[in-house]
């Protein structure tokens, strides 16, 4: 969708990617093809930037060691460890990364971010077309080689939950949890039974529900705040 065809005052979500070695701990990722990183939760402007990340696959111990030696990182603490993944809490230095700070300054919200050995991939919500245009100008000025992959106009989502930025697996897991009574009091079913029904691990199902619920709540609370302004 051409940028000029998007109503300038409508919220939009842009999906774009950046070469892995051009962003944050890119050198570590590029050198470890079996390692992938996912941001645990997105945070709006005014809060800490990307405080939790999941490290998955081979080379997790080396990744944590490398992060602790990174000039952009103040501290790294491994909060949870599983067979194939680790949850790390990261505290960044103030000068951490120009791209993340520019997103922060524009009042945009990172909905999703992940990286493999090749590219960082982002889904970012902009309150208007102007925010996306400013971001584009910034990237060109600083020679940041990003690639715009998709623009979604939030006023006409193809599915009611698309406006929340849910992935298909997250939508499926949340819908099943609601239908089976996971959120009822008392709880009618556990993650083990629900995960078995979808044929995935309990950990994978839990992550889908937690991330999906986080996106829905943040979007709903953000909309409530905007309405009260």
From TrEMBL:
Name recorded for this polypeptide: Predicted DNA binding protein, contains HTH domain
Keywords: Transcription, Transcription regulation
Ranges for domain Bacterioopsin transcriptional activator GAF and HTH associated: 15-129
Record flagged with keyword Transcription: yes
Domain HTH bat-type: 166-217
Source lineage: Archaea, Methanobacteriati, Methanobacteriota, Stenosarchaea group, Halobacteria
Pfam families cross-referenced by the UniProt entry: BAT, HTH_10
């Amino acid at each position: 969708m051409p940028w000029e065809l998007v109503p300038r005052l409508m919220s939009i979500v842009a999906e774009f990617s950046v070469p892995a070695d051009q962003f944050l701990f890119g050198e570590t990722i590029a050198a470890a093809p079996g390692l992938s990183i996912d941001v645990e939760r997105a945070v709006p402007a005014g809060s800490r930037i990307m405080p939790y990340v999941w490290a998955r696959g081979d080379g997790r111990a080396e990744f944590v060691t490398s992060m602790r030696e990174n000039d952009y990182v103040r501290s790294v603490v491994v909060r949870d460890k599983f067979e194939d993944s680790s949850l790390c809490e990261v505290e960044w230095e103030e000068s951490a990364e120009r791209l993340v700070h520019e997103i922060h300054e524009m009042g945009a919200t990172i909905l999703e971010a992940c990286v493999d050995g090749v590219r960082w991939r982002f889904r970012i919500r902009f309150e208007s077309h102007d925010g996306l245009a400013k971001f584009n100008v910034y990237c060109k000025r600083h020679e940041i080689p990003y690639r715009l992959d998709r623009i979604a106009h939030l006023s006409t989502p193809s599915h009611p939950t698309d406006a929340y930025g849910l992935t298909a697996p997250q939508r499926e897991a949340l819908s099943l949890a609601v239908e089976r009574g996971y959120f009822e009091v008392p709880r009618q079913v556990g993650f083990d039974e629900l995960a078995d029904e979808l044929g995935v691990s309990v950990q994978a199902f839990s992550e889908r529900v937690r991330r999906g619920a986080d996106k829905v709540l943040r979007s709903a609370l953000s909309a409530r705040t905007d309405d009260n302004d």
